[in-house]
Amino acid sequence: MELFDDMVPITARSFRELCRGGTKKTPEGLPLHYKGCVFHRIIPDFMIQGGDITKGNGTGGCSLYGVRFKDESFSGKAGKHKGPGILSMANAGRNTNGSQFFLCTVACPWLDGKHVVFGQVVKGYENVKQLESFGTPNGRPTRTAAIKDCGVLQEMK
To answer: Which residues form the PPIase cyclophilin-type domain (predicted)?
Structure first.
């Protein structure tokens, strides 16, 4: 993954820290970490959604900054769902970002200006396609797919 730190540093930092994990906890006392988190919504030819670290079903989540944080930017790369591999924040409306994210499997221009784009897949897109194969039109995956482990491989400064 390449994160767009230059465009949306707050969003990129929250995602990176949830990948890294650490000692911080959610208000419920759960680890503030993506490890073990399921992809609860997978719709072929659209997107793969995960990151609900509190409930695992798409109704919860928590960011590095608390339960929710504001949208940063919809300009430049941070505003365009231009094609497969785009990494974007899932939300319940403006300024409701938490830990949930989604990966586009196609261009999704109707999401521009509604969801903050904060990164893209630069290597291993075949894994995204494998996850997509577990999807259904209603979004309920045919198999359980979870983040077995995660972290930060390299930070670009």
So the answer is: 1-152
